[in-house]
Amino acid sequence: MSLGKLLRKVFLVDLFQGLAVTFRNQAPKNIVTEQYPAERPKVAERYRGAPRLNNNPENGETLCIACNLCALACPENLIVVGAERNEQTRRKELTTFTYDVSRCMFCGLCEDACPVDALELTQDFELASYTREGQIWDRQMLEEGPKPTQYKC
Amino acid sequence: MKAASDASMPDSTFLDSTELVLNMGPQHPSTHGVLRVILKLDGEKILGTDCVIGYLHRGVEKIAENRTWAQFNPYVDRMDYVASVSNGLGYCLAVEKLLNIEAPPRAQVVRVILTELNRIASHLVWLGTHALDIGAITPVFYCFREREETLNIFEKYCGARLTTHAFRIGGLQYQTYDGFEQDVKAFCDMFPPKVDEYEELLTGNRIWKGRLTNVGVLTADECKEYGVTGPMLRAAGVKWDLRKAQPYSGYEKYDFEIPTRQNGDTFDRYVVRMQEMRQAVRIIRQAVESIPEGPIMGKVPKVIKPPVGEAYVSIEAPKGELGYYVVSDGGVQPYRVRVRPPSFVNLQALDRMVRGGLVADIVAVIGTLDIVLGEVDR
Question: In degrees, to the nearest 5, what angle opens at C-alpha B312 toward C-alphas B307 and B316?
Answer without folding.
Answer: 140
